[in-house]
């Protein structure tokens, strides 16, 4: 990792030196500094333009600057490619560390999916000292929760395997936070399939969907119109801390 970053910084230094030399050569050809800076930047990025007239372009100093500009774009491409793979590699390492921590959890809360409502729930759980694992739909959400030092897994909300990875066998409860009642019902069904004894608290957007969510396996249902994520988090915290749910 250190060698990779050292190589990246070396390439960036080479790019900077080539660009400065190219600008010096262009200025030596009688071109103003402002035009030289723009001309070499555009030329290095291989963008067509018409800043330097044809007569000046045949000047040996300008030709030398063109030669210095030529390798800049390939070097930039290499640096960005290295940064990208470095980022992916760091994500994979972080993900493995998080999964290792999740496997050691016992009595935690699974929050799914991640949205504004879930964020408020996570805040309250954290304030109460309760561990939570969030199941997210996208890598962007996963990275965001990692930055906030939250435990999270990325996977299909309808997959039993995703809930297994989140440690549902040792979890105290699942909180279905979607604003879509149909999705919450699917979450309840999947969670119950993964662990038949798990307690599920579900958010409901419509009162007429309460019965459907109960049939899907929800133990407790909170209507969105009457409670915010903060209230749900507080209720879950009290329930988990006082009732001591047994999975």
Structure description:
The chain has 247 residues and is of the alpha/beta class. It has 2 domains: 2-79, no CATH class; 105-243, NAD(P)-binding Rossmann-like Domain (Rossmann fold, 3-Layer(aba) Sandwich), CATH 3.40.50. Helix content is 60%, strand content 11%. The protein contains 11 helices and 6 strands. It has helices at 2-28, 33-44, 54-57, 60-69, 72-103, 116-127, 139-147, 160-165, 181-194, 210-216, 229-243, and strands at 109-112, 132-136, 151-154, 173-176, 199-204, 220-223. A 6-stranded parallel sheet has the order 3-2-1-4-5-6, with helices on both faces. Helix 6 runs parallel beside helix 11. Mean pLDDT is 83; it is low at 241-247.
Content of β-strand? 5-15%
Q: What is the helix content? A: 55-70%
Structural class: alpha/beta
- The name of the CATH topology of the largest domain is Rossmann fold
Q: Would you report the number of β strands?
A: 6
Task: Note the gap between the termini.
Answer: 42 Å
Q: Please, what is the CATH homologous superfamily of the largest domain?
A: NAD(P)-binding Rossmann-like Domain
Main sheet overview? 6 strands, parallel
String of helices and strands = HHHHHEHEHEHEHEHEH
Q: Give Rg in angstroms.
A: 28 Å
- In the predicted model, the low-confidence regions spanning at least 5 consecutive residues are 241-247
**Count of separate structural domains:** 2
């Amino acid at each position: 990792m250190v060698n990779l970053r050292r190589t990246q910084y070396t390439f960036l230094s080479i790019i900077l030196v080539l660009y400065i030399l190219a600008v010096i050569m262009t200025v030596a050809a009688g071109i103003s500094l402002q035009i030289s800076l723009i001309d070499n930047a555009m030329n290095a990025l291989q963008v067509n333009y018409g800043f330097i007239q044809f007569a000046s372009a045949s000047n040996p100093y300008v030709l030398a600057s063109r030669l210095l500009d030529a390798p800049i774009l390939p070097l930039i491409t290499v640096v960005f490619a290295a940064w990208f793979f470095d980022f992916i590699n760091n994500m994979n390492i972080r993900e493995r560390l998080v999964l290792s921590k999740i496997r050691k959890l016992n009595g935690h809360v699974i929050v799914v999916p991640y949205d504004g409502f879930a964020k408020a729930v996570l805040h309250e759980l954290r304030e109460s000292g309760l561990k939570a694992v969030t199941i997210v739909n996208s890598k962007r959400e996963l990275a965001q929760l990692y930055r906030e030092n939250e435990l999270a897994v990325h996977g299909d909300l309808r997959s039993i395997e995703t809930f297994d990875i989140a440690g549902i066998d040792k979890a105290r409860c699942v909180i279905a936070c979607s604003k879509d009642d149909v999705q919450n019902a699917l979450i309840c069904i999947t969670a119950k399939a993964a662990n038949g004894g798990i307690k599920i608290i579900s958010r409901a957007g419509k009162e007429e969907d309460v019965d459907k969510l109960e049939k899907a396996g929800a133990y407790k249902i909170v209507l969105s119109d009457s409670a915010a994520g903060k209230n749900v988090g507080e209720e879950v915290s009290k329930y988990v801390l006082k009732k001591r749910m047994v999975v």
